[in-house]
């Protein structure tokens, strides 16, 4: 086989594999959206689920998912940024650094069910919080922290060394260079990493089964006292997220309109995750163009 023919065959194989992946993913997303889109309306997105009669929705579950996202990222982003900056700017090539990176890679590949059991022992039982949003947020932090550290490290390492050298030549110290030069240049990558990491929160269910719980109390959205058990902002109340709700509806089968709620919940979850991924690419590209004036 000649080199030209081999190149054409390899190109065809690569294109065929890419199209196969696109077709499989497109078919899966299209199937979910087609069946679930029929159930999505304003009442479905705002009302709580009904156990006695049909016509319930997923309003509290959507709120719990977004609230859990906020709580989790309050821990993940600051710690992940500090850890990534340390590995990129301060850590030297030593055995300690290799151990740290090995631990990060191990945590990144750890099954979420294991993190859930860890959260059950530490965040639920040892702290005395019980099943709560705070316990779930800390468990998700354990899951997302390695990814955030990796995104931060790669974004910081992508900043040209010439910018660091120019900052030092102008009299700035190392800390001032990181704060005023390195992080602003790496900001588009940091934003993209944070949004992609956030998207993982919506699809997580296994870890939350053991930490945040599988039920939610009746919420009073007019009650803004976070210490009240019925307040939606209370971080120490149990909360059922959208992904957990899909699992619960399909396994227990207690509600009369099970198929409608399950299909609609899956479609909403797909749309939210797609929205986060597309937002990461769009926002990162826009910030990069704004900061580089291109």
TrEMBL record:
<dbReference type="InterPro" id="IPR005672">
    <property type="entry name" value="Phosphate_PstA"/>
</dbReference>
<dbReference type="Pfam" id="PF00528">
    <property type="entry name" value="BPD_transp_1"/>
</dbReference>
<feature type="transmembrane region" description="Helical">
    <location>
        <begin position="66"/>
        <end position="87"/>
    </location>
</feature>
<dbReference type="InterPro" id="IPR000515">
    <property type="entry name" value="MetI-like"/>
</dbReference>
<protein>
    <recommendedName>
        <fullName>Phosphate transport system permease protein PstA</fullName>
    </recommendedName>
</protein>
<keyword id="KW-0812">Transmembrane</keyword>
<keyword id="KW-0472">Membrane</keyword>
<feature type="transmembrane region" description="Helical">
    <location>
        <begin position="12"/>
        <end position="34"/>
    </location>
</feature>
<keyword id="KW-1003">Cell membrane</keyword>
<feature type="domain" description="ABC transmembrane type-1">
    <location>
        <begin position="62"/>
        <end position="280"/>
    </location>
</feature>
<keyword id="KW-0813">Transport</keyword>
<dbReference type="GO" id="GO:0035435">
    <property type="term" value="P:phosphate ion transmembrane transport"/>
</dbReference>
<dbReference type="InterPro" id="IPR035906">
    <property type="entry name" value="MetI-like_sf"/>
</dbReference>
<feature type="transmembrane region" description="Helical">
    <location>
        <begin position="266"/>
        <end position="284"/>
    </location>
</feature>
<dbReference type="GO" id="GO:0005315">
    <property type="term" value="F:phosphate transmembrane transporter activity"/>
</dbReference>
<comment type="similarity">
    <text>Belongs to the binding-protein-dependent transport system permease family. CysTW subfamily.</text>
</comment>
<dbReference type="GO" id="GO:0005886">
    <property type="term" value="C:plasma membrane"/>
</dbReference>
<keyword id="KW-1133">Transmembrane helix</keyword>
<feature type="transmembrane region" description="Helical">
    <location>
        <begin position="99"/>
        <end position="123"/>
    </location>
</feature>
């Amino acid at each position: 086989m000649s080199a030209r023919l081999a190149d054409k065959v390899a190109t065809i194989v690569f294109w065929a594999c890419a199209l196969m992946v696109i077709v499989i993913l497109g078919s899966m997303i299209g199937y979910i959206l087609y069946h679930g889109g029929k159930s999505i309306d304003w009442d479905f997105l705002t009302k709580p689920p009904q156990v006695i009669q049909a016509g319930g929705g997923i309003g509290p579950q959507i709120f719990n998912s977004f609230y859990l996202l906020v709580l989790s990222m309050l821990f993940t982003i600051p710690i992940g940024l500090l850890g990534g900056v340390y590995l990129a700017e301060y850590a030297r090539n030593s055995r300690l650094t290799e151990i740290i990176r090995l631990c990060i890679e191990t945590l990144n590949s750890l099954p979420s069910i294991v993190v859930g059991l860890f959260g059950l022992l530490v965040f639920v039982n040892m702290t005395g919080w019980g099943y709560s949003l705070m316990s779930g947020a800390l468990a998700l932090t354990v899951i997302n922290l390695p990814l955030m550290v990796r995104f931060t490290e790669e974004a910081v390492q992508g900043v040209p060394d010439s910018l660091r050298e120019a900052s030092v030549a102008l009299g700035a110290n190392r800390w001032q260079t990181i704060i005023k030069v390195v992080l602003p240049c790496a900001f588009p990558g940091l934003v993209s990493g944070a949004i992609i990491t956030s998207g993982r929160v919506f699809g997580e269910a296994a870890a939350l089964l053991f930490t945040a719980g599988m039920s939610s109390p009746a919420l009073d959205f007019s009650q803004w006292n976070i210490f009240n058990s019925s307040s939606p902002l209370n971080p120490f109340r149990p909360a059922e997220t959208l992904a957990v709700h899909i699992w619960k509806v399909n396994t227990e089968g207690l509600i009369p309109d099970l198929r409608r709620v399950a299909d609609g919940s899956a479609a909403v979850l797909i749309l939210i995750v797609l929205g986060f991924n597309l937002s990461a690419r769009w926002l990162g590209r826009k910030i990069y163009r704004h900061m580089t004036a291109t």
